[in-house]
Each structure stands twice: as structure tokens, then as C-alpha cells.
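Example 251, ligand flavin-adenine dinucleotide.
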Amino acid sequence: MHVLPQGPSRPPPRRFRVAFLDSHPETPTARTFRFSTRGTDFQYRSNQAVRLVLPGVQDPWGPARSLSLSSSPSEAGHISVTVRLTGSPFKEALKGMKPGDEAEVIGPLGDLLYDPSRNSVFIAGGIGITPFRGMMRYAADTGASRSIVLLYSARTPEEFAFRAELDALVRQHRQMEVRYTVTRPRESKMRWEGRTGRIDEPWVRSALDGMERPKVYVVGLPGMARDLLGVLRDRLGFAEEDLEYEYFMGY
Ligand SMILES: Cc1cc2nc3c(=O)[nH]c(=O)nc-3n(C[C@H](O)[C@H](O)[C@H](O)COP(=O)(O)OP(=O)(O)OC[C@H]3O[C@@H](n4cnc5c(N)ncnc54)[C@H](O)[C@@H]3O)c2cc1C
């Protein structure tokens, strides 16, 4: 496996042509799209983002969107993005792509870099799970041995993307754990006996309990991410170098 060693340096962003491979649903409102990177030298670190450009798409906000990669650098030959489907012209064009259709990616972008030498708490709100799927796959594929606890919230149990894969990773890797919480259980038809309610200070504290020198990563919509970063800095005393975060602007 040829994977860039994880570290603070990042390859400079460039523009690459990629070919659409396939797509599949993750939840009723989210879908994963895979693109071939064969024949390009696109490289990224776990787990950066790209600007995905669909040339020619007529969209009031233009033909490009910033998207975290949901793939891991350890998965050779392709990248994937996982998006919330909103009906925007960009998303409809993405849904309509046929195998072999060309797109462009500008990247890699972003500073959300997994540090395998530290214990980690990953905090994901909704579609903010995307880079963490890549990080957990990367940790599994590269034999990272530090603890990872993922706190993952979604409105309903149906909306947990990658649930089967995450649960399988946890079964295979004793140092990984996923804790789920559902914020709108009444909107669901699925039975849910797990935790309900938002990600809050006591729940974050419980994930950190007994963890040595943890690094905490927060990804989600700006309101949720800002609130939790406030808790981590002001109430739990985290310094900036122990935090990594990404705001999913645009919803
Ligand atoms: C670093 C990063 C990573 C992201 N990763 C993901 C991901 O993995 N999956 C995912 O689904 N989304 C991700 N997003 C969000 C994504 O870029 C889009 O913004 C989002 O998917 C909405 O696009 P849309 O076409 O569905 O919606 P649209 O409503 O068409 O919005 C498209 C764009 O227009 C802008 N916009 C809309 N309304 C206004 C307004 N009133 N004023 C100003 N600007 C406006 C938004 O900023 C948005 O970028 C990420 C965003 C960032 C910044």
C-alpha cells in the first residue's frame, strides 16, 4: 500500500480531472459518489477536502462545492465524497452522472489532519461524519493503535451514514468505539433504544474520561461546531493545538 505518511505538511492544491465511477445511497438523504484518480497523481492526507467542479452545471451558486473526502488515502485508485441531497442544481447534476463522465477536483484542501500518534475523540454532527469515515478507515488500514472514540449525532437513526461499516470497524479494532445519539427520535419510524438528545458537555466529558493527551476533532454545521468548540475551550480547558475542526458552511 502506498500511502503518504500522516504529518503536518500537505501536498499543494492543484486541479485534476477525475472520472465518475459509481454512487450509492448512505441514508434516505445522503449519497456517496466515487471518482477514479487513476492516471493522476492526486494525493491527500487523512482527511482533507476538495472543491468538486462539475463543468457546465447551471447553478445560482456556481458549478463547484467544497466537500470533505469520505474516502481514505489508503484506498487506492479512487476518492469519494458523501453529500446531503438538497435538490440544488449542483446536487442533481451529481446524481445524474454516468460512469466515465468527467469532473474536476481542486485540492487537496483543508487543515483537518488526523494525528495517529494521539488518542482521538471525533465529534460529528449529521453529514459532518464524512471525514471521520475516512479517518477511521485510514486508522484501520494503517494499523494505528491509539484510541478513537466517535460521538455521532443524527436527527433520526435512518440518518446515520456508514453505520454498518463503522460498527464493523469497531468489532475488528478494539481501540475504536462509536457512540450514537439521535436528536429527533419522534421523526423516525425506526426503533431506537440508544441515547437521544444533542451532543453536550457531559457526553463529551464521558468520552474523554481516562484518555491520555487526547486530540478532539469537531465537524458539522457551523452552529453545532462553534457551540462544542466553546465547551471544549472554555469549560474543558482545551488548547488550540489539541483541537481540529471543520465547519460545513452552505446549508
Ligand atoms: C470544508 C467543507 C467541507 C464540506 N464537506 C461537505 C460534505 O462532506 N458533504 C456535504 O454534503 N456538504 C459538505 N459541505 C457543504 C457543501 O460545500 C455545500 O455548501 C452544501 O452541500 C450545500 O450545497 P447545495 O448545492 O446542496 O446547496 P445550495 O443551497 O445550492 O448552496 C450552495 C452554495 O451557495 C451558498 N449559499 C446558499 N445560500 C446562500 C445565501 N443566502 N447567501 C450566501 N451564500 C449562500 C452556500 O454557501 C453554498 O456554498 C462542506 C463545506 C465545507 C466548507
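Summary: The CA atoms of residues 8 and 113 lie 7 Å apart.
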